[in-house]
Write a structure and sequence with these properties.
Strand order of the largest sheet: 1-2-3-4-7-6-5-8-9
Structural class: alpha+beta
Strand content: 35-45%
Largest sheet: 9 strands, antiparallel
């Protein structure tokens, strides 16, 4: 019960800092703080109240994170789920794994992955799962934002080691 209450408080604090109007839900690429320091992140918010998020970062390989938002259920670490990403008449299905620290579903893949091409399209992408429902995200500005992250990913793989 105590951990559930703590998670509720943390999620409430995070939700309070999230943008709530659709105008601020466009794709952007900016430096964000992560456990290991600053990391360039392409992100967009969506869903019914702008509380769901798609984020792309480079942790050795492009890494997609999907935050279900406030409509998402309480999740158990280590679970996997299949999500269909639909845009422009195409569908790409990916199995994402719940990342326990941030409570996001994540997957790593190569820079030529079909999902990245789909996310760099026009219109909107609808992310669906039988178990976790559906959220939609605008693709306006996604190509430039994702391109910036992929360029950083290319630099990281060609040199600097921790």
């Amino acid at each position: 019960m105590r951990s559930g209450l703590a998670a509720f408080i943390v999620l409430g604090a995070l939700q309070a800092t999230q943008p709530t109007n659709a105008a601020s839900c466009g794709w952007s690429a900016k430096m964000e703080e992560d456990e290991g320091g600053s990391v360039l992140t392409a992100s967009v918010c969506g869903g019914p109240n702008g509380g769901a998020h798609l984020m792309l970062t480079c942790f050795g390989k492009p890494t997609l994170s999907y935050d279900l938002g406030e409509a998402g259920p309480q999740l158990e670490p280590g679970i996997k789920a299949s999500f269909a990403f639909k845009a422009g008449g195409k569908t790409v299905t990916k199995t994402l794994v719940l990342e326990a620290m941030y409570n996001y579903f994540t997957a790593q893949f190569g820079s030529a992955d079909p999902l990245l091409a789909l996310l760099r399209g026009k219109g909107e992408v609808i992310v669906t799962s039988d178990k976790y429902g559906e959220n939609s995200f605008s693709l306006a500005g996604s190509s430039a934002a994702i391109g910036k992250v992929l360029a950083e990913c290319g630099k990281a793989s060609s040199g600097d080691a921790d």
